[in-house]
Amino acid sequence: MRFGPITKHRFYKLAAPVVLGALASLPAGCERKAPDNAPPAASGTPPPSAVPQQGATASKAEMVAIPAGRFIMGDKDQVDAPPHEVTVSAFYMDKYPVRQDQYQALMGGNPSRWKGANNPVEQVRWSDAVRYCNKRSQLEGLEPCYDLRAWKCNFDANGYRLPTEAEWEYACRAGSATAYFFGDSPSKLGDYAWYDKNSGGHPRPVGQKQPNRWGLFDICGNVWEWCNDFYKVDYYQQAPPQDPKGPNQGENKVLRGGAWRFSVESCRSGYRYNENPGYADVCFGYDIYGFRCVRKAANR
Fold first, then answer.
1. Are 146 and 153 in contact (CB under 8 A)?
2. May I ask the CATH architecture of the domain 1-300?
3. Residues 151-183: pLDDT tens digits?
């Protein structure tokens, strides 16, 4: 059976996650460098089969309207992801991972190792991603979701935030109940994702592969995507069935989707991964971590 944290340590023998106390003691302002070695059917009312509505925002990021629905979350082959039924409210999600040109325009810098305007931004910590979410909200006159002193998310705010783990998996699956959103076999993964066998050893510009059924590109492969949730091995056994938001505290945050230097198994829809969020302004970040934003849907 696959287990997120154990698998991670196999890939990162030379770059194990840093605990928060150690992070706080590191110097600020240095250049980040990537490590040499990195590593049963859905129930309820099925989501619509048509691609959800899409549109652009004031920050020029295209988003997809994800419909509310119910699905079986998890992966029977992972000990930290037992399948269970979850209901998710409607929300909007970025059509692509955040690109380097978008990040540069808002944040005034580009931390990525693999430079390219249309490449996904990488070498971003969880804290970098939520700062971007707040800046994007402010640009569009929306209420920011994050308190950057307490690092808490206000889910009632109408601004941008990172997806919950449940939202991310629901959007990735796009109504599917198979290991990958396109089936149980990874034989077609190269049509949808950049991973260790086809990436050429680096991330690629977004949108070059086929999207999932709901029009989301690079939802697996290319870069791992930060989620809002803290990681906990047994959280699924305690999670509420409606819009779970993860544990209240923890050391690591969840990442989903696999990355350009990881195997086919990491691209499974239910595969869980985790890393230290990097709250402090220190040298921390790997060239496999990126993100995309979500917004709650307006009440009707």
1. yes
2. Alpha-Beta Complex (3.90)
3. 999 999 999 999 999 999 999 999 999 999 999
